[in-house]
Design brief:
single chain; mainly alpha; 144 residues
Length: 144
C-alpha cells in the first residue's frame, strides 16, 4: 500500500502540538484549558497530528512472520480499519465540539501512543518526542 500523503504542517504547528500533548500527558488540565481558550485552531492541528500518527502507524503491512501471508494481509486490513475508525470518531467529535475538543483529541493521541506505540522499555513522553521530531523534520522538508 502506498504511503499516506498529508498536506505539510508548519514547524510552529508541530511545536504547538508537541507542547500541548506534553501538557495533557502530564495531567495539567488547567494549562490545557487556558491554551485551548487562547488558540481556536489547536483542535485542527491536533486532528492533523492524529491523522499522521494513527494512519501512518496503521497503513503498512504488519511485521508478523509467524502467520501466512493471507492471514497477515487480513490482519493488516483490520488494523487499517481500526485506525480509520479512530480517526472518524475524532473527526466526528471535533465537528460536534469544535475547538473545545482539543484536550480530548490530545488525550486520545497520548493514550494511543502509550498503549499502541510505546514499548514496555520506553516512556510515552519519549515516543511523543520522537513523533514530534519526525513531524518537525517533515515540516521543514515536505515531500514533493
Amino acid at each position: 500500500m502506498p504511503a499516506t500523503r498529508f498536506a505539510p504542517m508548519t514547524p510552529g504547528a508541530v511545536i504547538t502540538a508537541r507542547n500541548f500533548l506534553h501538557t495533557v500527558a502530564h495531567g495539567d488540565t488547567d494549562t490545557a484549558a487556558e491554551i485551548t481558550a487562547q488558540d481556536p485552531t489547536l483542535a485542527d492541528v491536533l486532528i492533523a497530528v492524529a491523522e499522521r500518527i494513527v494512519l501512518g502507524s496503521t497503513s503498512g503491512p504488519l511485521p508478523v512472520d509467524e502467520i501466512s501471508p493471507r492471514a497477515s494481509a487480513v490482519l493488516s486490513e483490520y488494523v487499517r480499519e481500526l485506525g480509520r475508525c479512530l480517526m472518524d470518531t475524532l473527526h466526528a467529535w471535533y465537528e460536534q465540539a469544535g475547538p473545545a475538543a482539543a484536550p480530548g483529541i490530545a488525550e486520545a493521541i497520548v493514550l494511543y501512543c502509550a498503549r499502541i506505540l510505546t514499548n514496555p522499555d520506553e516512556d510515552c513522553a519519549d515516543v511523543l518526542d520522537q513523533l514530534s521530531a519526525h513531524l518537525l523534520h517533515e515540516a521543514h522538508h515536505p515531500a514533493p
